[in-house]
Amino acid sequence: MTDISLPTHVLTEIDSPIRETRLTGVDELGRLAGGHDLGLAAAARAALERLTQDDSRAVSVAAATVLERTAIRVRPDRVDFGQLAPGTPRVVADVLVDGPPLALASATVTVSGAGLRAMLAGRQLRVLWQPRTEWLDGSVTVRGPAGWAEVRVTGQVAVTVRGPVDRAAVEAQLRAVNATANPAAYGPSRVTVLPPAAPRRRFGGAVLIAGLTALVVLGGVGVAWALVGPDADSSRTAVIGPLPTASAPAETAGPPESAGPAENAGPAPGATITKEALARRVTSLDKPSWVATVKAGAEPEGVAVAPDGGTVYVADQGAKVVSIVDTATRKVSEVTLRNTPRFVSVSRDGAKVFVSMYDTALSGSGVAVIDAATREVRYLTSGLMPYALSVGPDGRVWVPIHSEGRLEVYAAGDQKELGSVTVPRNPHAIGFSGDLMRAFTANHESNAVAVIDLRSDKFIGSIPVSRAPHSIAVSPDGRRVLVAGYEADAVNLIDAVTLKRTGPFPVGKAPQSVAFSADGKHGYTVNEGDNTISVLDSGSGKVTATVKVGRSPRTIGMSPDGRFAYVSNGDDGTISVLRVGE
């Protein structure tokens, strides 16, 4: 791309013999380099590179500064997996890739380091290490039209004598799954690296279109993994044996009235980036503390947090809008929908927001698909009474159809309906263990949790649980499932590997929603009947704290960095912000 693509007035400015005029041209080139017209952006960067050799030091420094500001960046630029136990099959970290649209256009990923893999999806760079040596000192490099950025990756395997391994057969199968390049097998990340929320900078219309999102060292469609190491073979596949079908088993003071001040926003573009600690080093608290109360509509229900932690989406069923909360400023904006929103979920790259809808007469059932950047809305027609929908490990959208006893499945890219899975009545919510290639649904009227094989999308069995299972959550490591028994005032824990149930464990009254902490040490229940949150030790099921929130709390959304939880309070029209990790 050459300067000839640039506007005439910009060409005139940068070719002027007057230094101040060329400086004005540099500013204009910076605006174009950050825009959504990728041709102009590339031409602007080419002109800026030429201007770094300008005779005027002021012009050359200004051009270099703008080039750096509009280049591709990674936050953080270092991932340290620390010391791992021998036999650890893999660890995963997520890094945010930042920069203007051009930075990610046709981006490619390369890796260096035994057992190291990397995948770029949208602005999320997923780094995976399968330990094959005692030490790792490698790197992942992202290259695009706006330069390159590197993440250094280190780790160590502890030297110790290995004893007997519990559940050896299943764990051996999981290690076999590690050999495949199927991203659906990897599930939620064990380590999450995300920056603090920063003010939004928008350069115009929609973010980079999906056709330009892309990667690839190996080629492929949509998503690709970069592989290294002697046994990295993209042709290998792994098969997990049949899954067993489970047999039947037998206060703290309230928050202040007004919200406190917002926390400091993230760095402005061009500023020095502060590296964030890995989320595995964020320790969840036995007793969360209240941070703020945010006004968020007439009757908020579903809550979801964007992958970068900067936005909270709230389904306001009292006003037929989705409230959008900026976590840095706590300012709220709205997107109006054609029907009553109930629950909300966000795509894995944060580009799309999915909202289930139906009115009090159970008509107008469907799913709204909101473009997170432009806030344009399109609609999908669903079965009757779509409930707490969720995005699976491979990006597909799963929608529990409450009144029809089935799950609808939509494609990751265009949300084309792929089919449905019949489960016991009536599915309220769904959670996923990507490692085990299993999905779990809470089936309210059947008092059971359904288990689905994600390789075949087939229902393979159910597990009896406490009365009226209303919500479900899978731990970050994919090994435990937490289920809320709405009418039992209790929760159950399920081993996702053996499918054995423990509990019931008493919690508050009418537990409506559940979630896990980012480190997996705690579970949370939203107790609609007594306006509290119960905090559980996820191993023992024991309640470690009870925290007061607003009136008629409905659902809970966890920030990816593990520090905050957001609870919708239906009768107050508010969101309670809690600090859950530090």
UniProtKB/TrEMBL annotation:
Keywords: Membrane, Transmembrane, Transmembrane helix. InterPro entries: Haem_d1_sf (IPR011048), Host-pathogen_enzymatic-act (IPR051200), Lactonase_7-beta_prop (IPR019405), WD40/YVTN_repeat-like_dom_sf (IPR015943), YVTN_b-propeller_repeat (IPR011964). SUPFAM superfamilies: C-terminal (heme d1) domain of cytochrome cd1-nitrite reductase. Pfam families: Lactonase (PF10282). Residues 244-270 have a biased composition (Low complexity). It comes from the Bacteria. The chain crosses the membrane at residues 206-228. Residues 239-270 are annotated as: Disordered. This is YVTN family beta-propeller protein.
